[in-house]
Structures are given as C-alpha cells and as structure tokens.
C-alpha cells in the first residue's frame, strides 16, 4: 500500500491553509489515498524559495511515504476523477496546462505534480537557486527530461478550466517577482550541480496540528543562503 507525502511550500498564507488542509484531507480520504500533509513553512528572512522547501519536505517526510505531491496551497482540485495515485510510470502532472486556470504553456509542470521518491532522487530534486517567485518548475521540467523520465497528464477530464479552484488573490497577495542583478540570466539556466545534495537548512520546529479535524505536520524551516553564490536571496 502506497502512501503520499503532500508537500506544501508555505509562507504567510494562513487563510488559504485553513481552507486547504481540511479540503485535501477529505478529498484524498474519499479517494482512499493514504497520505500525510506536510506544511513547509519558511521562517527565515530570505526571499521565498519554493524549490528548496520541497527538497526539505522530501528529506524530512520519513520512510513511511513512498511518493510525493508538490502542491500549491492556493490550488484545490474540484474534480474527483483527478488521479492522486502512485505515479509508477513517471511524474504525473495533475494541474496540467489544459486544466490549470492560469498557466497553459505545454512545458508547465507547476501547481500539482506527483513523483515517486525514486524518480525525485533521479532528478536530484529541484534547484536551490530560485529565490523569489517563479521559474523553478521550468528548470525542474528540464531535470525530468534529463533523467529520462516522461511527464504524464490526466486524460478524460471534461471540466476544463473549472477543474481547480484557485484561491490566490493578486490584489491581496503581491508576489515577489523582483529580478535582481544576475538573477535574470541565471533563471534560464539548468543547474547541473545543486538540488537535494546541497540544500542548506535547519528545522526550527516540527508540530503535529489538526485543522478542523484534519491532521497535518507543520515544519518551521530556516533555509540558508550563500550570498556569494546567489546574491538575489536577500530582499536588499
């Protein structure tokens, strides 16, 4: 019996979390998917790093889970036909471009992506060089290809752009889209060196939590940044 580690990169989205945890627990339980929700809460003073948080979640998720979902906190699946089962044949992109309410380019793998732990290790996880919003999943698409894996997507889903509820309010939640100095050039490169093997972090605390009766684990994570390597990790 497989067990899913639902990895949710997080910072200051409390209202969304209150909606997300009980909703996903109900959704997955109804589909009889054994799961554990990990809220990966970045508590340092660097810019948000979604990819590094997912790397940390992978490393901290324990041996009782054998596959992961990288899952945005502001994206809720509305169609119960969506498959969250063990993605044995390769990475399975639940939030595919034909269904995601915002992103429709064909190499998109963000939002919700399932991988076996073995396949994630074959990619050496995600690059730790992406501070601020965006691009880390585009680089990860190249890693998937480089590892000889094929991205699969849902078929037979007829709900189109109504397949997901997107909770993000851009007027209320400004995204950190600043591009600083060399970051502009760097964001289009493939990071051949880093990933799971060199993510630098400390777990400040690990808390078991119930949100409206739904269990999850909150990891308060302090990421570390080498400012000589990625000077754009700071807000300065």
From TrEMBL:
UniProt KW Chloroplast keyword: no
Cofactor or coenzyme needed: Mn(2+)
All copies of domain Galactosyltransferase C-terminal, residue ranges: 91-166
Catalytic activity, EC: 2.4.1.133
SUPFAM superfamilies linked to this entry: Nucleotide-diphospho-sugar transferases (SSF53448)
Example GO BP: carbohydrate metabolic process
Any one annotated GO CC term: Golgi membrane
UniProt superkingdom: Eukaryota
Pathway this chain belongs to: Protein modification; protein glycosylation
GO terms, molecular function: metal ion binding; xylosylprotein 4-beta-galactosyltransferase activity
Catalytic activity: 3-O-(beta-D-xylosyl)-L-seryl-[protein] + UDP-alpha-D-galactose = 3-O-(beta-D-galactosyl-(1->4)-beta-D-xylosyl)-L-seryl-[protein] + UDP + H(+)
InterPro entries: Galactosyl_T, Galactosyl_T_C, Galactosyl_T_N, Nucleotide-diphossugar_trans
Keywords: Glycoprotein, Glycosyltransferase, Golgi apparatus, Manganese, Membrane, Metal-binding, Signal-anchor, Transferase, Transmembrane, Transmembrane helix
Subcellular location: Golgi apparatus membrane
Entry protein name: Beta-1,4-galactosyltransferase 7
Organism: Cariama cristata (Red-legged seriema)
């Amino acid at each position: 019996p497989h067990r899913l580690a639902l990895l949710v990169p997080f910072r200051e989205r409390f209202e969304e979390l209150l909606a997300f945890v009980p909703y996903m627990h109900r959704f997955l339980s109804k589909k009889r998917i054994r799961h554990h929700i990990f809220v990966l809460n970045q508590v340092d003073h660097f810019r948000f790093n979604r990819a590094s948080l997912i790397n940390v979640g992978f490393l901290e998720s324990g041996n009782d889970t054998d596959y992961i979902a990288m899952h945005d906190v502001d994206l809720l699946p509305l169609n119960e036909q969506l498959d969250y089962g063990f993605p044995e044949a390769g990475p399975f992109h639940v939030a595919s471009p034909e269904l995601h309410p915002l992103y429709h380019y064909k190499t998109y793998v963000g939002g919700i992506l399932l991988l076996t732990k073995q396949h994630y290790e074959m990619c050496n996880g995600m690059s730790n060089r992406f501070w601020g919003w965006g691009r880390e999943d585009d680089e990860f698409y190249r890693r998937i290809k480089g590892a000889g894996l094929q991205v699969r997507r849902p078929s037979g889903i007829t709900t189109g752009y109504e397949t997901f509820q997107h909770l993000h309010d851009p007027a209320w939640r400004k995204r950190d889209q600043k591009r600083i100095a060399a970051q502009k050039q760097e964001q289009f490169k493939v990071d051949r060196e880093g990933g799971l093997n060199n993510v630098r972090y400390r777990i400040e605390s690990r808390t078991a939590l119930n949100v409206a009766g739904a269990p999850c684990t909150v990891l308060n994570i302090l990421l570390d940044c080498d400012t000589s390597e990625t000077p754009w990790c700071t807000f300065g």
